[in-house]
Amino acid sequence: MKKIYSTLSVLGLASLSMAQPTMQASDLNPNIGDVYNTNVTNWVPEGNWGNNVTWDLSGMVVANSSSMSVNAGSPTYPMANHTMVDGSGSISYQENGATGQYVHAQDAGGTVITFQDPMKIMSFPLDENVYDTDNFSATFTSGGLPFTRAGSNLIFADAWGTLITPEGTFTDVWRVRLDQDYSDTYAGGTIDYEVQVFAWFKAGIHNALASVATVESTQGAPFQYGTYLLTGNLSIPEDVNMAFSIFPNPVSENLNVAFESSESIESIRVYNSVGRLVNQIQVSSFDTTLSIDMSELTTGVYFVKALNADGTETAAQKVIKK
User: Per the domain annotation, does 239 fall within a domain?
Assistant: First the structure.
């Protein structure tokens, strides 16, 4: 099989000569209660590496959808502080900390892979100096046979720029490359795997905005797929039939809110793409318009809702921060 990563691409890190935003663990690590919805798509080329790159993945074709919820850790794996459950029931027990993200166990439909040496899948802080290698080992039983897994991951940020997906355009995005080589050994022999994943991340969105992956093994044909995050419906529905309107959209500095009637509205709230409150403006019964300062918020998708006098919230209107 071909070797997936190359010395040339690693040396290409030196071309990222301009200082770009550094992402910390707090910018990307998931939080308990988060829910992420993604579309699984065809594989598309990952595009260029380097500085100020624009990747256009808007042509991804949806094959099916998936979801991921973030729950508390499990006492079975005390080092894992999060339990990641996807819509199919597969579970990943992860340690998401200040220096990286590690997988301690995976449960794929009853086949439980337990890592004696955890598998590192992300390294922090995330910037052009990230270049990390990590060895991992695990055991599991499949078809009544015991397996031993051993391998290594190479993790590095190879590009920075603007990402376009079917959900919109995102700036200040880092692309992280994960090259994985591992072998599963059992009584019948050894199966070798090579996996390459390109994933795009933006501070404040605690999941990959998009990814493309290639999986090769000594058994079977290569398998390729892509994903993109549904940033427009992360736990907050949209409804355009509301008692107020917003403009301009997209917005770079001040977002204007105009009311049909503000008598029953106590405040206007702004949420980020994972449903966290980032701004709140009190509303007077005499207000017909108000302005919300969006200039300090990072680029991405936000949602505007009204808190009513009875304590309920309206459905959200989506706004794009440039």
Answer: no
CA dist 51 to 6, 158, 205, 245, Å? 19, 9, 21, 38
Q: Give me Rg for the CA atoms of the chain.
A: 22
Residue 85 scores a pLDDT above 80: yes
Residue 15 structure tokens: 């071309």
| pLDDT one-digit tens code per residue, 249-268 | 888 899 998 877 666 788 88
Map residue 13 onto helix, strand or coil: helix
Q: Are residues 310 and 256 in the same domain?
A: yes
Q: Cα separation of 41 and 226, whole Å?
A: 5
Same domain, 183 and 274: no
Residue 265: CB atoms within 10 A of its CB come to 21
The total domain count for the chain is 2
The yes-or-no verdict on residue 112 having pLDDT over 60 is yes
Show the domain range for 217: 7-233
Contacts of 54 by beta carbon, 8 Å cutoff, 6+ apart: 161, 162, 163, 164
Helix runs in the chain, H state only: 7-11, 25-28
Do 253 and 222 belong together in one domain?
A: no
Predicted local confidence at residue 122, as pLDDT = 96
> Could you tell me the pTM of the whole model?
0.70
